[in-house]
Amino acid sequence: MHLLAADESFFDSATWTVSRNLALLAVVLVWAATAYWVYKDARRRVDDPWLVVMATLLGVVPPFLGPILYLFFRPPEYLDDVRERELEIRAIEERLAEHDLRCPVCRGRVEASYLVCPVCTTRLKQACAECGSPLERIWQACPHCATPVPPSLLADDLLQPLPQSRRRREGRR
């Protein structure tokens, strides 16, 4: 083992120089890594590119203090989570709007069981030939009586007003 001479100190040795340089390299790498983390996190949380740049500068300029400050002021959610929540809300609103059915012609309120609009007599749905229940356009069979639905029956005269004579007949039922 090499002993230091009396006039040499530890801080003048090569061991100290290598240790100091490795420690400085580690500090610079950690500083760069935290700045990079701030940049990547800001891109996932902030929509405005200028705010991403400002957050990154905040992560770089006050070393080690910037990322901590960024943690206090960053948005609480990722942009993907915000978009997903907005899509879910829109889907829920569309489902709720289905309960408020309207005639496509006159915008009068109708119910899912209506065959014709009571305001303008527009045919909304066809009736099952067997049981008379309203049929949806895509159904292949009546769900109430299992009668097959011919394709021509559903494509015929939907969204057409009933003729005058049929209006009177269906009004009596």
Give an account of the 3D structure.
By secondary structure, the protein is mainly alpha-helical. Among the domains are: 16-79, no CATH class; 126-172, no CATH class. It has helices at 14-45, 49-60, 66-73, 79-98, 151-155, 164-172, and strands at residues 126-127, 134-135. It has a two-stranded antiparallel ribbon. Helix 2 (49-60) packs antiparallel against helix 3 (66-73). It is rod-shaped, with a radius of gyration of 37 Å. The termini are far apart.
**Share of residues in strands:** under 5%
Kindly state the number of beta strands.
2
Please work out how many helical segments DSSP would assign: 6
- Uncertain runs are none
Which properties best describe this structure?
173 residues; mainly alpha; 6 helices; 2 strands
